[in-house]
Every structure is written in C-alpha cells, then in structure tokens.
Design brief:
Length: 361
C-alpha cells in the first residue's frame, strides 16, 4: 500500500523554521521580551469566565473589530481579524491570488510571503531589493507593469532586514498597482508600531491597499495568535467570505479587546524597545567586524565580517540564540538579533565581544 503524495506545488518551507533550542537568552523570533501586564491577564480571564463556552464565538468579531478600528481612528468595516497576521495574509492570497494569478515579493524578505503564495497555488514573482535593502520604486513600477501581479506584498519594516520604506515608495507602488488595474498592494506592518512611517493613513474605501498588523509583537501576545488587516470595506467583506466560519475563538477575541484597554502600557513597552534598539545598535556598531543595518523594527540585522554561521554557533554555546540568516541569498553571514531586555542585550554584547576577539585571534 502506498500513501498519497502531497500537492507538488506547495513549495518547501525548509530553512524557515527557527531552531527552538533550550537557551537562557532567546533573541531569535522577534517576540516581545516582556509579558503583558498582569492586570490585563486578570481582566481577560475574568471576561473569559462570562463566555458561554457551549456557543460558537461571534462570527463577525464585532466588538474586537470595533475596538481595533477605534484605536486606529478607522471605521470598523475596514477591519478584518484572524489567527495571527499569517492567517490574514493567507486569507488575502486565497481571496485575491491563487491559481493563474501572481504575487510579487521583494527579496530578501519574510519567507512566509512566498510560502503562503505557494500553498495558495499562486505563482511567485521575485524582485530584488537594492544593496541597502530598500525597494526601488522605479524598478518595482517596471516589474508591476510587466508582470501584473494580483497581489504585491511589501514588508515594511522588512523582516529580516529592518528596512522601512518611505511614504514616497509606498505611494509609487500603489500608483503602479492602480495603473495596472487589477492588483492589490498589501503592506505587512507586523513591526509597524516600531517605525516612524506607516501606510495606514493611505487606506481608503476606493484604494487597493491593505495594511496588515499583529498583536504578536507590540501587544506581547504572540501566544494568542491575533492579527488584523485594515482595508476597503468591500475587500474586508470578501475576506470574510473566504475565511472559515467561527475561525477566531472567543478567548482570542476577548484578549484582543481587553488588550486595547491597556494601550498606554503597551505604548510604553514599544517606546522602551525602540530606545533599547538604539542602544543595542550603537553597542553593536562599536564592535569590530560587524556591519549593522538601520532598523525600524524590534530587531537588528548585522553582517559578520567572517563566518556568520560559526559566530552563531559560538553564541549558542554561550546560551544565546539569535536568528541565523548566514546562508540565505543576499544575506551571507548575516544574523538577526531580536531586541531583548537590557540584561539580555548586555549578555549578547558581552558574548559577541568575546567571540569576535576569539575569531580574530
Ligand atoms: N509578518 C511578518 C513580517 C512577520 O515577521 C511575522 C512574524 N514572524 C508575521 C507576519 C506573522 O506574525 P503573526 O502570525 O504572529 O501575527
């Protein structure tokens, strides 16, 4: 007897998964180093106690969407919520891409953009970022005009490089998408709150633009799996038709709603992480043999002048896990470091200083 083979067009996800090693300092998956406030957890659990568990959740996630929309100064009809921004992206591609359609990604970027394209049977067109990892609006415009992708996926701040695209670049991409008449620009702002630029203000009812965000990083709620999209109501309605009914558990919806009441605590965390990112980047710049790329996210990409993988290994031996991108195209010898607590970052800097001296000796 033989078992069936899976669809051959799903692509491979090899190399994406970050090893989950048991180390004391984990700076590899861009989570917040801080747990959410205790008062939030108590309020959420209290609210959860009132939920009739024999009933399905609110299918339209009405209160959650209303809350997210109010926090962003947007109408609720422009908000779609799902299990993490990955599910939001998958729903977007299932709805607007798929067989016979193309997505455009700007490499190097978040691997899931190409992967979700593959699993939704979307053909992936790849454009290259410039040497400083920004997207060239001129080149992007040419690719969009030539390839006519159904969905253009732009990650800003970009994972794993940290690059923030200017408003002018986003407007140029949007103009190119509008020009070809059938496309959708999706700006993945999973790290948007850590940057000065956002495409959120460009969202309008008649513009083919959707901005995607998540509770995983800023709201310290990676465990909850909650993300959302902000876009034209007609697009949001289409996403609702695609996604499975009752996909968002009551517990998740409640967590998202309760978290919004702790907005100032969350903002304080973002501010702390932004200052810590500046301190970390400055300390890394002072170390010999490292190039530090500018970042608008909660991580920093560095290029090692030498064997990046060997350096990664030596850090693991010292109980510090960062993300190894050293064998990725265009990212040779690069490591991505998530901003941690000051103590974690100090441990990393001390270890790096020792290891770099050893490697140089
Ligand atoms: N987009 C980007 C750019 C990311 O880095 C991540 C998290 N690694 C996600 C989306 C997915 O986040 P989540 O599904 O946790 O919301």
């Amino acid at each position: 007897m033989s078992l069936p083979s899976p669809r051959p067009d799903r692509g491979a996800l090899e190399g994406y998964h970050s090893p989950q090693l048991d180390v004391s300092v984990r700076l590899n998956t861009n989570e917040s180093p801080y747990e959410p406030p205790r008062e939030f957890v108590d309020a959420w659990l209290e609210a959860l106690r009132q939920v009739p568990l024999n009933r399905y959740p609110d299918r339209a996630a009405t209160e959650l969407r209303r809350g997210i929309a109010a926090a962003l100064g947007q109408p609720a009809e422009r908000v779609f919520a799902a299990n993490g921004s990955n599910e939001v992206l998958q729903t977007l591609l299932l709805t607007y891409a798929g067989p016979g359609r193309r997505s455009l990604v700007f490499e190097p970027t978040y691997a899931l953009h190409a992967h979700i394209s593959h699993i939704t049977a979307t053909e992936v067109v790849t454009a290259e970022r410039a040497a400083d990892f920004t997207v060239s609006p001129t080149e992007a415009g040419l690719v969009i005009a030539a390839e006519r992708p159904a969905v253009v996926l732009l990650c800003s701040p970009n994972n794993p490089t940290g690059t923030v695209e200017s408003r002018a670049t986003i407007e140029a991409l949007l103009a190119a998408v509008i020009d070809h008449g059938q496309g959708l620009l999706v700006v993945d702002e999973a790290y948007g709150e850590f940057a000065d630029e956002s495409a959120l203000e460009l969202v309008a009812d008649d513009v083919p633009l959707v901005v995607v965000r998540t509770y995983s990083k800023v709201w310290s709620l990676a465990a909850m799996r909650l993300g959302f999209a902000v876009g034209p109501p007609s697009i949001i309605e289409e996403l609702e038709k695609t996604v499975l009914p009752y996909h968002l558990a009551s517990a998740t919806q409640l967590a998202g709603r309760e978290a919004l009441r702790f907005d100032s605590e969350m903002r304080a965390r973002v501010d702390t992480l932004i200052s810590e990112r500046r301190r970390l980047a400055a300390a890394l710049e002072r170390l010999p043999g490292l190039t530090v790329y500018p970042s608008g996210a909660n991580f920093v990409l560095v290029r090692v002048d030498g064997d990046g993988h060997a350096l990664w290994q030596r850090l693991v031996e010292r109980g510090i896990l960062v993300r190894d991108f050293s064998r990725w195209p265009r990212l040779d010898n690069c490591l991505r470091i998530t901003v941690g607590t000051p103590e974690e970052d100090d441990a990393l800097i001390t270890a790096l200083r020792e290891v770099l001296t050893e490697v140089a000796a």
